[in-house]
Amino acid sequence: MSKKKTWFYLFSAPVLIALFLVVLLPFFYGIFYSFTNWDGVSQSAFVGISNYINALKDPTYLASLWFTIKFSVIAIVLINVIGLGLAVLVTNKFKGANILRTIFFMPNLIGGLILGFIWQFIFVEAFSAFGKLTGIPGLGSWLATTNTGFWALVIVMVWQYSGYIMVIYISYLQGIDQSLLEAADLDGASATQKFWQIKFPLIMPGFTVSLFMTLSNCFKLYDQNLSLTAGGPYNSTQMVAMNIYNTAFSMNKMGFAQAKAVIFFVFVAIISLTQVYLTSRKEIEA
């Protein structure tokens, strides 16, 4: 074995060991426990696929899944549209563009729980004060209803991730061959035509990456859900991650929660792989 390969395996080993111990081993253990009635304390017994059947019949789990799907669809569209719009804005040459990049990216630096509590203060205290000042009723109870709680989660998610997705789109916009844009200018193409006919097809790889990242982040959201609404009122804003957590640690049904998690994993994996496949085909066509 060459010295170069020796150093490669030496430095790769800790990462691979950590990946196995932290990700792969718990994952396969979770699949095993999903076929048991383990409660986290006592010895478990094999129950077959009954946990999976019960999960698919659980109305709270199905409701949280549907709520998560609705939230994810709207948040993914808004994050990518706004992120792309911000990227187009700051890649134009004008004074202050770099400052705007920093400002737009800053929300992503705030942790999930802290971000949720900040926005909880805004939705409760600031909205209530603004409602009293303007005479608009109901602003103080923004997090107390299902519809407004839903949009509160969307607002926070879009506010946090749009700047991050903007950075991805910026990298692809800046990688476009300027000679193509100059040729379009000579042909008399408008800014809109240049964007849709030249820029947009060439940034499709960035769209694939951004869509995959926003999809995974939206589906697995937990911290903002906890800090903003905690799933209320009456679990109507409970997302799948919170439903699985409550099943495991509030109801002490670890095996049942693992079955829910495996179903959710398969569901998200199918959607993610389908999305990557479809958008990758657009890259080839572009």
UniProtKB/TrEMBL annotation:
<dbReference type="Pfam" id="PF00528">
    <property type="entry name" value="BPD_transp_1"/>
</dbReference>
<dbReference type="InterPro" id="IPR050809">
    <property type="entry name" value="UgpAE/MalFG_permease"/>
</dbReference>
<dbReference type="InterPro" id="IPR035906">
    <property type="entry name" value="MetI-like_sf"/>
</dbReference>
<keyword id="KW-0812">Transmembrane</keyword>
<feature type="transmembrane region" description="Helical">
    <location>
        <begin position="65"/>
        <end position="91"/>
    </location>
</feature>
<protein>
    <submittedName>
        <fullName>Multiple sugar-binding transport system permease</fullName>
    </submittedName>
</protein>
<dbReference type="InterPro" id="IPR000515">
    <property type="entry name" value="MetI-like"/>
</dbReference>
<keyword id="KW-0472">Membrane</keyword>
<dbReference type="GO" id="GO:0005886">
    <property type="term" value="C:plasma membrane"/>
</dbReference>
<feature type="transmembrane region" description="Helical">
    <location>
        <begin position="261"/>
        <end position="278"/>
    </location>
</feature>
<feature type="domain" description="ABC transmembrane type-1">
    <location>
        <begin position="65"/>
        <end position="275"/>
    </location>
</feature>
<keyword id="KW-1003">Cell membrane</keyword>
<keyword id="KW-0813">Transport</keyword>
<feature type="transmembrane region" description="Helical">
    <location>
        <begin position="150"/>
        <end position="172"/>
    </location>
</feature>
<keyword id="KW-1133">Transmembrane helix</keyword>
<feature type="transmembrane region" description="Helical">
    <location>
        <begin position="7"/>
        <end position="32"/>
    </location>
</feature>
<comment type="similarity">
    <text>Belongs to the binding-protein-dependent transport system permease family.</text>
</comment>
<dbReference type="GO" id="GO:0055085">
    <property type="term" value="P:transmembrane transport"/>
</dbReference>
<feature type="transmembrane region" description="Helical">
    <location>
        <begin position="103"/>
        <end position="130"/>
    </location>
</feature>
